[in-house]
Design goal:
alpha/beta; Rossmann fold; 3 domains; six-stranded antiparallel barrel; nucleotide-binding; transferase
């Protein structure tokens, strides 16, 4: 097959490209220029998509012996990922830009361009496995390295995208991948993994949003209140908060019981942030919109192997999942058999049946255990 290997400049994508070439594929390496300001260099393990990363990817391609190009998708990335991130936070929701990038950029814009150029597939360094099921559909499963598993951020891929994807690292551990990179003479063997959101290189999401949103935010400040409505603090913008947050609340009045308080609700129009005890964060009902199915859309999923993951590298929660249609579009209702804590609208609920990824949906609403009639 003719394969495009997306090379970020890190160790995982370099080894994935090398394995694809070694498997006999005709591989071309590409680095995605996603930043509008690529002149900045990464700081430690933060950020990515810099000139340093592009150079690392080029050197890795030279060692592997494959052609290498840089594709500038910065405008598309800004529109589909960065703008979406800002809009979601301004609306009081908590998005995951990595899922949006996989959906809109790596397995849409890149794959579309690759197919248009006559390539057959896109290979990446994600830790996930692809298998062909008895029905002939391509199934995506968790990586053998559960600590590194990235199937959660790939839960937005549909069947057509999976048919044109390769994940060469799905059967390996991170330790083995680093050792292989060193054995292959790849200089990125010991390069630190990038953390946080790639376009917020210093990790200060609130500061970045404050700078970028400016007058676009629905309010520039408001009250922090407890569940009784009593004002316990103030803030400079709701976009600095997410459901379940504990740190950085700057409350002037301690809780009567002396226990920590967490963000329970965010109302961006009025600028009100409500805080309370951790137990009030418990939810066991989720409503999801804009579902993305990896294969055929299910109607109901139940059983011991059905779980939902609500954060990247988060816990799995046993669940019953029902997919229905509404006047506003498809809806996914999730009953969690074990309560989850600190779940915010905007997050992704990725649905599993055993190790197989069934699909995902964007959480639009949650219901707290105490509010549900048993």
């Amino acid at each position: 097959m003719r394969v495009i290997a997306a090379m970020s400049g890190g160790v995982d994508s370099a080894v994935a490209a090398a394995r694809a070439a070694e498997a006999g594929h005709d591989v071309t390496g590409i680095h995605l220029a996603l930043s509008r300001n690529p002149a900045s260099y990464r700081s430690g393990a933060r950020g990515c998509c810099t000139i340093e990363d592009a150079n690392d990817a080029r050197r890795a391609a030279d060692v592997i012996g494959i052609p290498f190009y840089v594709w500038d998708l910065s405008e598309r990335f800004h529109e589909d990922v960065v703008e979406d991130f800002m809009d979601e936070y301004a609306a009081g929701r908590t998005p995951n830009p990595c899922l949006r990038c996989n959906e809109k950029i790596k397995f849409a814009a890149v794959l579309d361009r690759a197919l248009g150029l006559g390539f057959d597939a896109v290979a990446t360094g994600h830790y996930a496995q692809l298998r062909t099921g008895a029905d002939g559909l391509v199934e995506m499963h968790r990586s053998v390295d559960h600590g590194k598993d990235q199937s959660y951020v790939l839960g937005v891929l549909d069947q057509e995208q999976l048919r044109h994807s390769l994940f060469p690292l799905g059967d390996s551990t991170k330790t083995a991948v680093r050792a292989e990179a060193a054995a292959r003479g790849l200089l990125v063997a010991d390069k630190p993994d990038s953390h946080d959101i790639c376009f917020v290189a210093d990790g200060d999401n609130a500061g970045w949003l404050r700078e970028k949103l400016g007058d676009r935010a629905p309010n520039q400040g408001g009250a922090v209140v407890d569940e009784s409505g009593a004002v316990v603090g103030t803030h400079t913008g709701t976009y600095a908060f997410t459901i379940g947050q504990r740190r950085g609340l700057r409350l002037g009045r301690p809780a009567p019981d002396g226990k920590p308080r967490f963000v329970l609700d965010i109302e961006p129009v009025s600028g009100t942030v409500t805080v309370g005890p951790r137990e009030r964060l418990a939810v066991d009902r989720l409503t999801g919109i804009r579902p993305r199915w990896c294969g055929a859309a299910p109607t109901r999923l139940a059983g011991p192997g059905v779980t939902v993951q609500l954060r990247a590298h988060g816990d799995e929660h046993r669940a019953v999942v029902t997919a229905t249609d509404s006047p506003d579009g498809p809806v996914v209702e999730v009953e969690l058999l074990d309560p989850a804590y600190g779940i915010a609208p905007g997050q992704a609920a990725v649905i599993y049946d055993g190790t197989r990824v069934v699909g995902s949906a964007t959480i639009s609403a949650t219901a707290r255990v105490s509010a549900v009639q048993r």
